Structure formats: structure tokens, C-alpha cells
TrEMBL record:
<feature type="domain" description="YqgF/RNase H-like">
    <location>
        <begin position="1"/>
        <end position="101"/>
    </location>
</feature>
<keyword id="KW-0540">Nuclease</keyword>
<dbReference type="Pfam" id="PF03652">
    <property type="entry name" value="RuvX"/>
</dbReference>
<keyword id="KW-0378">Hydrolase</keyword>
<dbReference type="InterPro" id="IPR006641">
    <property type="entry name" value="YqgF/RNaseH-like_dom"/>
</dbReference>
<dbReference type="InterPro" id="IPR037027">
    <property type="entry name" value="YqgF/RNaseH-like_dom_sf"/>
</dbReference>
<protein>
    <recommendedName>
        <fullName>Putative pre-16S rRNA nuclease</fullName>
        <ecNumber>3.1.-.-</ecNumber>
    </recommendedName>
</protein>
<keyword id="KW-0690">Ribosome biogenesis</keyword>
<dbReference type="InterPro" id="IPR005227">
    <property type="entry name" value="YqgF"/>
</dbReference>
<dbReference type="InterPro" id="IPR012337">
    <property type="entry name" value="RNaseH-like_sf"/>
</dbReference>
<keyword id="KW-0963">Cytoplasm</keyword>
<comment type="similarity">
    <text>Belongs to the YqgF HJR family.</text>
</comment>
<comment type="function">
    <text>Could be a nuclease involved in processing of the 5'-end of pre-16S rRNA.</text>
</comment>
Length: 138
């Protein structure tokens, strides 16, 4: 069964999916929350389409490990997801994933416009890959 990774943001939600073995994460899409008001429905479609068994939501923590207002919003989103899709939802520390994704895209000489289109999807991939890596070590 596959795992869905989400990078939840005010404007966009980056989406990634694991392979069936839970070894690798691939970016799938970016849900534009301003254009797509049916976010719950789109996530439900992705769950069915990819045969998802659990979900990982990135939790932005402060550098000292505390959870601020942005993190609290992600916790509330994860709780909402848990109730609406009836699957296990895990929160995963996402500190620096967006910065890491941006650095990788800059090093690959991706234009600013194209970076904006893929950075959330790439951040979701990093969140999910870090989660998968931690499970394989345990």
C-alpha cells in the first residue's frame, strides 16, 4: 500500500506518493487552494487513484522544536483529514524542506517561474522521503 505525502500551505498543497514498497517518494501535483475549493474531494480522489493506506503531513516546527501558529494550522488540517478520509495521518517534521527544495532547483538552474510551479510538490516529496527513510531504519 502507498503513502500520500502533503506539504500544506496557505495557497498550495504539494502532493507526493510513495511507491508500493514504501521506498521512494515521487511528486505528483500541486493543489492550488485558491483555484480549487474542493480540496477534500481532490485528496479523496488521489487516495483512491493511488490506493493510499496512510498519509504524512509536513509539520513546520520552529528551529527550537516548538510548534508555532503555522504548525498549529497543519495539526488542525491533519486532524480534519483523519476524520474525513478515515486513514492514519502522521505529522512529520518538515523543517528546512522547502529551503532544501528551492536550493536544489536553483542549483539545477530552474527559472524562478518554474520553481514556483514545482517547489511545493518537491517539498512534499522530501517530507515523504524523510518519513519513508525513518521507517526503513526502524
Amino acid at each position: 500500500m502507498k503513502i500520500l505525502g502533503l506539504d500544506y500551505g496557505d495557497r498550495r498543497i504539494g502532493v507526493a506518493v510513495s511507491d508500493a514498497f514504501g521506498w521512494t517518494a515521487q511528486g505528483v501535483e500541486v493543489i492550488d487552494r485558491q483555484r480549487n475549493t474542493a480540496v477534500d474531494e481532490r485528496i479523496a480522489e488521489l487516495i483512491q487513484e493511488h490506493e493510499i493506506s496512510e498519509i504524512v503531513v509536513g509539520l513546520p516546527k520552529n528551529m527550537n522544536g516548538s510548534v508555532g501558529p503555522r504548525g498549529q494550522i497543519c495539526i488542525e488540517f491533519a486532524e480534519h483529514l483523519r476524520e474525513s478520509v478515515h486513514l492514519p495521518v502522521h505529522l512529520w517534521d518538515e523543517r528546512l524542506t522547502t529551503m532544501s527544495a528551492e536550493r536544489t532547483l536553483i542549483e539545477a538552474d530552474v527559472s524562478r517561474k518554474k520553481r514556483k510551479q514545482v517547489i511545493d510538490k518537491m517539498a512534499a516529496s522530501l517530507i515523504l522521503q524523510n518519513y519513508l527513510d525513518s521507517k526503513s531504519k526502524g
